C-alpha cells in the first residue's frame, strides 16, 4: 500500500469510523453492480451523514485525491466506474428517510435511500414517487437525481428532475450547498440545484433531497397487445391517451426479437408471446374508485380489435399473469444469453420518427454484420428506445462504427443519444463527437466554475 | 439626444428595420404595464427573429450598452424596469408559433407568443399549456420562462420550468445557446437550459422554446365555498385530492377582506360573498367523459356540509356565474381602490403552516399600523399566498419594516419570500438580506460566468 494511501485511510477512518472505511480486498469483495470497473479503486469510504461526507471531500481534496460517488450501482453508462487511485464515496450508509409530509405530499430523504424504500414509506400515506423504473430495488436517491432517472412514467410525471423540490450537495471543496426547499413554488433567484440534477456527481455529491410525491395509483388492469406495426400501436396510444390519460400507468413497446429472447429465458413465459406479431405493447391502467377501469380497457381493446388495429391481446386475469407480463418487459438481462458480447444503447426520438428509425436500424445492422442480434424495447410515449446488441464476436473493437449506425440517424429527427441512462464514461466520446460544441464548451466552463481541479468523478460526462 | 444614442439607433435600425426601433416619446407612448419604470429607457428595439436579436445584443454589448428584455410587461417585481441609458429589447414582434406536434404533445414558439396564443393553438388539438395564470392574455413565453411562472395549476403540472423541454437564448456576447430539444427524455450532459429558466433575463435572453402540452381539461363545475377556518378548508382539499386529484383544476383561497374588496368593485358580485365567513375557496373540477364530475363535486360538498366543514356554498349554475366566481378571485387590481398607496407580496409556505402565518401576520400589522389594510388570497395546494397592502399613508418609506413583518416569520417554517413573482428590482434587497449567502455568492459567480460585464438586465435579481 502506498504511503499516501495509509495517511488518507487514517484520516478517513477518523472521519467515518472503522465501519465507514474499506480497503483493497474489502472493496473487491462487494458486488460491483452493472459496471466491471465500479470497484477498481483501492479505498472506499461510507460517510454516515452530510457532515462526514463534507469532511471526506475536504480531506480528499486537500490530498489531491479524486472522488467517485456511488449509490446502488445500477447505472448503465459507467458513471460510477473508478480507477485504482480514486476514492469511492459510497452513500449507502446515508439511508434515512428524514421526513414525510402528507399534506404537502413531499418526502425528505438522504441520498442512500432506495426507490423501493421511498415507495414503502410513501404508500403508507397513499402516495408514491412519480418515477418508476426496473432497478427500483437497488437504485438510490443520489443516483436517481444524478442521472435524472426516467423510467416508465416520464410521460405522466416527468423525469426525476421534475420530482426534486429541494437538494443538498457537497461541493468539490467540501462546502455544503443547501437548498432543502419543500415548496412547489419558490422563485428566489437562480435555481442552482438544477445544476446537480443529471450531472452524474461531477458538480457536487448529492447528500439529501426533498422530493415531491404523487397520489398512489394501483394497477386496475395490465394487458399485452400483439401488433402488426407501430402505426397501429400509435393509434391505440392516441385512444388510450384521449380516454384515460390520467389513469395510464405504462405504455411499453417490445419488438419481437426482444420479447422472444426474454420468453426463452423463462419457461413460465412460453405462452405469453405472440409468434407472428412484430411488435407487442404492455399497457397498464390505474384503478379508479368511480369507474371500472379494467372494463374500460377491455372495451377500448375490443374496439381496437374490431378496427383491425390489434392482432392479439392478453388482459392479465391474475396477479401472476400481470407479473409475467412485466417480467417479459423488464428482464432485459436475458439478452446476456444471446451472445458472448453485448452492448446497450438508450436513445430517444420524436414518437412519429420511431417506426422509420427502427426499420432503418435493422436494415443497417443486417448489412453491417448480420450476425449481430438486435433487441429493441422501450417507453413508447416518451419515444425512448433501449437497443441491446448481442454477438458471439467482439463488439467493442467496432464500437465507433456501431455508434455511428445508432447515433447518426438521430440528428435529422431531433433525437438524443442518451434518453435516460446518461453519459458516464461509456457515452462520453459519443457526446464529444455528436454533441453541440457550444453546449459542450459551456458544460466544461460550468464544471470548471464548480470543480476546477476535477476532484469529483473525473473522466465522466465532459472534460 | 446623445451622440452615442444616434450611432446606436442607426446600427439598431440597420439590424431591425425602421419598424423595429422606437426612440424617446415613441417609447413613452406605449403602455408601461405593471411597473412605472418599464419604459424609462430612451431606446427600444424589437427584433423580428433570433438572428436580429443576436445582432442587437452583439451591437449593444460592443457599445457597452446594457439591455433590458421585455415581453408582455405583466411582471410584478420590476424585472423589466429600465433606466434611461438602457436599451429595451422587446420580444413582442417574435410572436410566431413555429410548430405543434399532436403526437408528442409539444409546441415550439417564439418568445413573444402569449399564453393565450399558445392555448388557442393547443386547444384545436385537444391540448393546453400546463400553467395557467390571471395575466394569460398578456404574458409572453419569454416572460413565463424567465419568471418560471406558477399560477393556478402548479400543484398538478408544476411550474413553467416543468413545461420547458427545449430552449434557445441569446447570450450576453450575442452568441446563441440553442437546445431546442422536444423530447421528454434527453440526458446528454448538464441541462444548461435550466439556468435561463427563472433567471429574469439576466443570464441570456430567451428567444424560442419547445413546451410540453397536456390534454385539455374543460371545467365541469366551479364552486365558491364559505369556510369558518382554514382547518376545514384543508380537510376539504384532502377529500378533493383523494377522490379527484387528476381532475382538480383549481383550489384557490380568499380571505374575507380580499373577497369583500373585489366584490365592492363589481356590482354584479354583490350576492357572491359569504358575509360571515372568514375564508372562501374557489374549487374547480374538470369534465370527464366517464363520470358526472359536477355531480361528484356536489356529493362531496354535501357531505362536507353535513360534517360541519362548510358554512355555505355556491355551485355555479351558469357560465356567467362561473365567470363571476373567477372575477372575484382574479381581479386583484380592485385592491387599488382601497388606498392611495399599495404594496404586493408573494410568499409560499408549507401548507400546514399557512393558517398560523396569516393569523400572526394580521396581528402583527394591527400593532404595526392598524390603518394598513391587508388583502390575502392564494393558491392553497401550493401554499402560495399573495399579500396586498393598501393604505392612505405612504408605505414605501416603511418598506424594510413591512418586509420584516412578512418575511421574517418565513424562515422558521421553510417559507419562500418569492413564490412565483420572482425577484426583479423590488425583492432584490430582501433576497440579499434573507437569502442564503452561499447560494447568493454562487448565483453571482454563475452570472459572472455568463455575463461578466452585466450587459443583460443589470441591477436585477443579484449583483
TrEMBL record, chains A, B:
One of its GO terms (molecular function) is oxidoreductase activity. This is FAD-binding oxidoreductase. Keywords: FAD, Flavoprotein, Oxidoreductase. InterPro entries: FAD-bd_oxidored_4_C, FAD-bd_PCMH, FAD-bd_PCMH-like_sf, FAD-bd_PCMH_sub1, FAD-bd_PCMH_sub2, FAD-linked_Oxase-like_C, FAD-oxidored/transferase_4, Oxid_FAD_bind_N. Gene3D superfamilies: 3.30.465.10, 3.30.70.2190, 3.30.70.2740, Uridine Diphospho-n-acetylenolpyruvylglucosamine Reductase, domain 2, Vanillyl-alcohol Oxidase, Chain A, domain 4. Pfam families: FAD-oxidase_C, FAD_binding_4. Belongs to the FAD-binding oxidoreductase/transferase type 4 family. Residues 36-216 form the FAD-binding PCMH-type domain. It comes from the Bacteria. Its cofactor is FAD. The lineage of its organism: Bacteria, Pseudomonadati, Pseudomonadota, Betaproteobacteria, Burkholderiales. It comes from Paraburkholderia pallida. GO terms for biological process: respiratory electron transport chain.
Amino acid at each position: 500500500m502506498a504511503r499516501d494511501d495509509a495517511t488518507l485511510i487514517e484520516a478517513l477512518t477518523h472521519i467515518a469510523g472503522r465501519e465507514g472505511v474499506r480497503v483493497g480486498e474489502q472493496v473487491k469483495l462487494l458486488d460491483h453492480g452493472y459496471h466491471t470497473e465500479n470497484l477498481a479503486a483501492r479505498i472506499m469510504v461510507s460517510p454516515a451523514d452530510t457532515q462526514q461526507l463534507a469532511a471526506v471531500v475536504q480531506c480528499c481534496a486537500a490530498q489531491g485525491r479524486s472522488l467517485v460517488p456511488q449509490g446502488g450501482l445500477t447505472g448503465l453508462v459507467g458513471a460510477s466506474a473508478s480507477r485504482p487511485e480514486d476514492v469511492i464515496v459510497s452513500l449507502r450508509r446515508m439511508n434515512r428517510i428524514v421526513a414525510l409530509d402528507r399534506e404537502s405530499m413531499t418526502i425528505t430523504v438522504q441520498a442512500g435511500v432506495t426507490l423501493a424504500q421511498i415507495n414503502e414509506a410513501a404508500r403508507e400515506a397513499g402516495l408514491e414517487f412519480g418515477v418508476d423504473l426496473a432497478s427500483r430495488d437497488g437504485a438510490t436517491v443520489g443516483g436517481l437525481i444524478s442521472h435524472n432517472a426516467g423510467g416508465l412514467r416520464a410521460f405522466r410525471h416527468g423525469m426525476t428532475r421534475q420530482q426534486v423540490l429541494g437538494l443538498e450537495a457537497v461541493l468539490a471543496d467540501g462546502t455544503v450547498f443547501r437548498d432543502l426547499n419543500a415548496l412547489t413554488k419558490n422563485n428566489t433567484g437562480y435555481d442552482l440545484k438544477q445544476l446537480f440534477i443529471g450531472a452524474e456527481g461531477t458538480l457536487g455529491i448529492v447528500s439529501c433531497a426533498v422530493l415531491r410525491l404523487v397520489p398512489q395509483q394501483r394497477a386496475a388492469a395490465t394487458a399485452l397487445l400483439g401488433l402488426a406495426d407501430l402505426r397501429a400501436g400509435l393509434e391505440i396510444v392516441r385512444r388510450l391517451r384521449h380516454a384515460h390519460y390520467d389513469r395510464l400507468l405504462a405504455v411499453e413497446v417490445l419488438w419481437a426479437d426482444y420479447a422472444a429472447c426474454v420468453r426463452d429465458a423463462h419457461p413460465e413465459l412460453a405462452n405469453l408471446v405472440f409468434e407472428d406479431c412484430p411488435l407487442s405493447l404492455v399497457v397498464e391502467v390505474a384503478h379508479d374508485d368511480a369507474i371500472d377501469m379494467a372494463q374500460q380497457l377491455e372495451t377500448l381493446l375490443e374496439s381496437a380489435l374490431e378496427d383491425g388495429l390489434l392482432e392479439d391481446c392478453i388482459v392479465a386475469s391474475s396477479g401472476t399473469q400481470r407479473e409475467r407480463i412485466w417480467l417479459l418487459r423488464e428482464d432485459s438481462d436475458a439478452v446476456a444469453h444471446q451472445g458472448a458480447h453485448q452492448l446497450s444503447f438508450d436513445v430517444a426520438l420524436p414518437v412519429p420518427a420511431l417506426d422509420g428509425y427502427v426499420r432503418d436500424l435493422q436494415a443497417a445492422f443486417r448489412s453491417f454484420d448480420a450476425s449481430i442480434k438486435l433487441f429493441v424495447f422501450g417507453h413508447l410515449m416518451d419515444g425512448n428506445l433501449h437497443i441491446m446488441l448481442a454477438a458471439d464476436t467482439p463488439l467493442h473493437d467496432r464500437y465507433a462504427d456501431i455508434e455511428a449506425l445508432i447515433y447518426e440517424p438521430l440528428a435529422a429527427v431531433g433525437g438524443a443519444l442518451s434518453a435516460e441512462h446518461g453519459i458516464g464514461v461509456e457515452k462520453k466520446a459519443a457526446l464529444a463527437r455528436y454533441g453541440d460544441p457550444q453546449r459542450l464548451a459551456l458544460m466544461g466552463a460550468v464544471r470548471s466554475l464548480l470543480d476546477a481541479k476535477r476532484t469529483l468523478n473525473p473522466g465522466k460526462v465532459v472534460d
